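Retro notes (design track)

What went well: tokenization of the new backbones is finally stable.
What didn't: we kept losing track of which sequence belonged to which structure.
Fix going forward: every design gets posted as structure first, then sequence, in one message. First example under the new rule, 179 residues:
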């Protein structure tokens, strides 16, 4: 699997340290409150799991699955594949995402969730690709800014592979064509 990786962009150690920092920031900002984390499946699962273990305030967790990707290309159309099981009305919500690229997914999520009247609504993303943005989204917590490259690992896939890599890496062209 590692043989398909051209370059490691963010190491396991860098991820561990940054996740702790983000959790500390969230714990400070929401002191005395309960935070309702919404994980965006599937890419968020390792990040959310590591983040939650470090957060010191009361938490609630639920998941959504939305889709706009197939392979390495965005279709541009966002659809809800799995919705929340709980109400977020009056709750302090943080959306936990693996990566913000064009911003279309987060724009859709923000609009959709805002109609459910949360008390507050913020975004926490592990990775941010600002150079790819098509629509502006307010990101409160971001782990790492990365360049315009298709990355895998630490929850992020290419055709459902590579999610278990403990780092964020760039795929070799040969692996992309292999699909
Ligand atoms: P956006 O809607 O911001 O363009 O894209 C968000 C979603 O696209 C992410 O949740 C992720 O699933 C997928 N995505 C965007 N860039 C990448 C990337 O470099 N690698 C992988 N594996 N997924 C990506």
């Amino acid at each position: 699997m590692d043989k398909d990786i051209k370059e490691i962009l963010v190491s396991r150690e860098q991820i561990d340290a940054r996740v702790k920092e983000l959790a500390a920031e969230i714990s400070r900002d929401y002191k005395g409150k309960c935070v309702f984390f919404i994980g965006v499946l599937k890419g968020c699962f390792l990040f959310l799991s590591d983040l939650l273990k470090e957060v010191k305030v009361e938490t609630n967790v639920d998941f959504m699955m939305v889709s706009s990707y197939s392979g390495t290309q965005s279709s541009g159309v966002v659809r809800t594949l799995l919705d929340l099981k709980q109400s977020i009305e009056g709750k302090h919500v943080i959306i936990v995402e693996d990566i913000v690229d064009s911003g279309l997914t987060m724009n859709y999520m923000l609009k959709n969730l805002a109609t459910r009247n949360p008390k507050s609504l913020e975004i926490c993303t592990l990775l941010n690709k600002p150079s790819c943005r098509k629509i502006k989204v307010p990101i409160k917590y971001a782990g790492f800014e990365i360049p315009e490259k298709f990355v895998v690992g630490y929850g992020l896939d290419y055709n459902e592979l590579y999610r278990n890599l403990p780092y964020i890496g760039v795929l070799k062209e040969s692996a992309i064509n292999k699909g």
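Added context from the reviewer: Residues 151 and 170 are 5 Å apart (CA to CA).
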